[in-house]
Amino acid sequence: MSAVAIKGWCPGALRPMLSGDGLVVRVRPHGGRLTAVQAAGIAELAARYGNGLIDVTSRANLQVRGVTDAAHLPLLDGLAQLSLLDSDPETESRRNVLVTPFWNAGEDTCLLAGELEQALAGSAFDLPTKFGFAIDDGRERVLAGASADIRIERDRAGELIVRADGAQLGRSVAREEAVAAALAMAEWFVTSAGATGGRGRMSAHIASGAILPDTLRGDAEPVAVAEPPGPGLHPHGAMVGVAFGQLPHSALAYLASCAPALRTTPWRMILAEGAREMPVGEGLITEVDDPALRVIACSGAPRCRKAHADTRALAAALAPHIAPDARLHVSGCAKGCAHSGPATLTLVATRNGFDLVRSGSTRDMPVLRGLNGVAIVKNPSVLMGGR
Questions:
Q1: CB atoms near residue 382 (< 10 Å)
Q2: Nearest to 366 by CA among 347, 350, 387
Q3: φ/ψ of residue 81, rounded to 5
Q4: Count H helices, E strands: the chain?
Q5: At 275, is the secondary structure helix, strand, or coil?
Q6: Which among 117, 120, 173, 329 could disulfide-bond with 346, CB atoms 3.0 to 4.6 Å apart, if both were Cys?
Q7: 34 dihedral zone (left: phi>0; alpha: psi -120 to 50; beta)
Q8: Contacts for 105 with CB less than 8 Å, ≥ 6 apart
Q9: What is the radius of gyration, based on Cα positions, of the chain?
Q10: Three-state SS for 125?
Q11: Helix (H, G, I), strand (E, B), or coil: what is residue 38?
């Protein structure tokens, strides 16, 4: 197993990651969409070759958990039959594309996603494994809070722009220029971020003073940012949340039976395409005021070998005590895999208990250290400064 026990990168299907419950095999849906046959197939494969649990990640991917070495190759064969397997690990790692779930047939979104994936597959870029693209070309930006380094959006006049994450303005492009401009921006990043070997992120590169060349720099202001959607019926279908980003294979199989296709999102929600009734099942969140939506938690111990605590048990206990307008992030270690950004409250598990960060991320300075998980549950007011 040592060959796959590598950290500091995102897992894939061809290059899985070893965790506390076995191999984690990441499935990247093409264009952020799975047909009902593909979704049902993933559910069956998770039950047959994994432990039956499936993660819904913040990058809009699915992860089959608990896969053994012996089961890995049969699982790959199953994914290949579902047209969900890339040709090689390098192509797979480059295909890191977020797609807004709110698109209609015949619009630019799917065409852009397909062209970008194809172009990335044929490129020779040595991109960082966490480097990603977002196609967020609706009338409002719904992916602004999701991790991406290069964004294809629209300006206030409704025209397409390509924008480097961290830059306020983007470059106006014609429809047929968008993908080429995005790739040129990625090439500039790899070339210009030599001090870090191209291993960093675009926003940090821009913040460090890097200046885009004139050919990639623009003056187009992107459209306004929309609030992330909640569970409920939407014009494009039924949006359901996934409690703590993990659901049993039976729930995915059930969702696959409710719609012709499923669209994945970076909000740990799944859109049942065209559904006019809310699916109700184990692990699915259907109400916008469900307390579980206020909490983000990683896999935690014993599922993750790096985690110092059972994050999900603590998250479930604390969720009802978190204010509706607040968010709690419970991380099993300082890496913050489940959520890289700030939260109202962040609890970071250490060998000596939990560190508490207010209005920050796992990388920020704690206001309290060494908190006991049981004590926090008994007195959750300590999170907000109470005694």
A1: 14
A2: 347
A3: -65, -25
A4: 9, 21
A5: coil
A6: 329
A7: beta
A8: none
A9: 20
A10: coil
A11: helix
pLDDT at 309: 95
Report the run of H or E that residue 172 belongs to, with start and end: strand 171-172
CA 38 – CA 82 distance, rounded (Å): 6
Per-residue three-class SS string for 69-118: HHHHHHHHHHHHHCCCCCCCHHHHHHCCEEECCCCCCCCHHHHHHHHHHH
* Contact status, residue 166 vs residue 202, Cβ threshold 8 Å: yes
Residue 221, token pair as written in the block: 């202001």
Residue type (1 letter), 313: A
Q: Give the separation between CA 357 and CA 346, rounded to whole angstroms.
A: 5
Which two structure tokens, joined as six digits, stand for 287? 């109400």
Alpha-carbon 77 to chain mean position: 25
Q: Could you give the residue ranges of the DSSP H alpha helices within 268-379?
A: 311-318, 373-378
Tokens 């419970």 correspond to 330
The token duo for 10 is 């995102």
Coil, strand or helix: which one is 190?
A: helix
What's the full length of the chain, in residues?
387
Check: CB of residue 320 under 8 Å from CB of residue 291. yes
Q: What is the pLDDT of residue 195?
A: 46
Residue 97's CB is within 10 A of a number of other CB atoms, namely 26
Query: Which residue in 194, 216, 213, 212 sits closest to 203, CA to CA?
Result: 212
- Residue pLDDT tens, the chain, 387 long: 333 333 456 789 999 999 989 999 999 999 999 999 999 999 999 999 999 999 999 999 999 999 999 999 999 999 999 999 999 999 999 999 999 999 999 999 999 999 999 999 999 888 888 899 999 999 999 999 999 999 999 999 999 999 999 999 999 999 999 999 999 999 999 999 864 444 589 999 999 999 999 999 999 999 999 998 999 999 999 999 999 999 999 999 999 999 999 999 999 999 999 999 999 988 899 999 999 999 999 989 988 888 999 999 999 999 999 999 999 999 999 988 888 889 999 999 999 999 999 999 999 999 999 999 999 999 999 998 765
Distances (CA, A) of 374 to 250, 256, 308, 314: 32, 38, 14, 8
